[in-house]
Amino acid sequence: MAGPASPPGFLTATLQKAVNWARTRSMWPATFGLACCAIEMMATGASHHDLGRFGMEVFRASPRQADLMIVAGRVSQKMAPVLRQVYDQMPDPKWVISMGACASTGGMFNNYALVQGVDQVVPVDVYVPGCPPGPQSLMHGILTLHDKIRSGEIVR
Amino acid sequence: MSNPPDIVTGETEAPGLGIPGAAPPGTPGDDARRRTHDLWLTGTESPGEMGRFTSEGAQEMLAEEAPPVLAAQMGSLVGDDYAVAVVSGTGDTQIINMGPQHPATHGVLRLHLELEGETIRRAKPIIGYLHTGMEKTAEALTYVQGATNVTRMDYMSPFFNELCFSLAVERLLGIEAPPRAQAIRVLMTELNRVASHLLWIATQGLDVGALSMMLYGWRERELLLAFFEKVTGLRMNHDYIRPGGVAADLPDGWEDDVAAILDEVPRGLADYVALLDANPIFKQRTVGVGVITPEECRAFGVTGPILRAAGVAWDTRRAFPYSGIERYEFEIPVGGAGDTFDRYRVRLEEMRQSLRIVEQAAAAMPRGDYRSDDLKVTPPPRARLDQSMEALIHHFKLFTEGFKVPPGETYQAVESPRGELGMYLVSRGGAKPWRLHVRGPSFAHVQALPVMLADSLVADTVATVASADPVLGDVDR
Questions:
Q1: At residue B346, does pLDDT exceed 90?
Q2: Could you tell me which residues of chain A have a Cβ less than 8 Å from any Cβ in chain B?
């Protein structure tokens, strides 16, 4: 790979494009449904909104088979270590979408029980606002992540 | 399941958890075919027997195992499956962990299962993975803001949470919502019951392998969510039912939407019946699975469809009517076997009955105001704010300070899709509750899971947990 200072040559640039294209076209999310947002995540995957259009309908129960974690819902202090463990079990490259106000910032529950933003536990790529975000919002977040991957480098 | 094997009290049993009064297996006094249920019920008051289901024993036993066994159970030692069985040595039981991150636990429920071969001997639910501190948060929010908080508790039935909270506050205030508000409340909550049961039937189908059920269930549910969005502005967590009435009147053309729902959802229900009722796979997975008796339901405080499937015609709407629901005609479906299949049939019929109530509520929707005329509770209309200084001040004070509620305490229950949802509200005369305690139906159902799961097969766990329909937001809050 070319160093960070030099621009990529023809070969590496084409390879990068191809790899990024492949990564966005079959992105498998791990199920990490926690609360209200999980219901909307299910709605996004179910018949009416159909995430299969983006090659993403295969919600994997095992983190070993997933490359995207959609943190859907409020993360309690008790759940945070579990969240981190699931994230660590996912193979690289991996991405995280923080879905909803609670996962992003703690939302309306600024108290002893909740982690005030899941980015304290795992690195987050895209934040989706809403309480809960509708399926359209989640899909917009997913497409934003696709754009981010397509325009980025293979090795982060 | 017929003829479950005897209950074996292994050596690994934590001390003090034996069953006094029960003769050891094999002795003449022992009824060899008694189920764990019966043993528990013979003396429900004895803590030694309660401990069998509720103690932390499973974790203690895990710690007492030999290090190689422990390592194998915790997953840090990965070996041949058969080799692990040899290492365990004792040959009695092994403990496996299910959840909190598991696709079939409906959220973040964690179960410890003590297995003897493929049979579950003990199950222990571990909760708290979604604890949000909502009861404490409720003490920091005014009564005006309170509905926003409680609606996120049982997120599958937000209208019921709001209704319960609003009724409790109204009772302390000594006011009553006007007739139109009450009819709107009945309309929205019963539609919510249908939406919740639709999601339940979708996930129950998914969990026992009927993936198409998932897609069909969501097809009808989207119809209801679209209507909720039109009325309240949100698909979930509406904050629509508030103390004093509802947040806004029904939108123009709501009659057509309700008519479309009343037309399409029964058609969907007929589809489900055709898919599941005589489906041999579905019946094998559900008939006789997760049985709970009426006595056990009472002992654990189980309400709602699980209790009715066990054969008890108990419904909070009949026992303690609210919002004028006693004026509508509906029946309470009752099962008999108390198994997963009966719960399916009861919930299916409940959806039909709820649609019946919706039809009556829509046909006889009274005219008038949609919120109370008590000006201490109801904000002035938007148009008045431009004309009157006092209205502006009043509006500002209502939304910053809130209204004061006279000292007192009350318990209010509604029949949520899962069972009796109750809120115990204590006021000390301020604008915020001094204490709000919630009696969540799912909490009681999760604590009854060990009884439903005892002596069933591992594969039935998923079907049983799904049929109990626990919403972890309701359990942990």
A1: yes
A2: 31-36, 38-40, 42-43, 46-48, 59, 61, 73-74, 76, 78-79, 82, 86, 108-109, 111-114, 131-132, 134
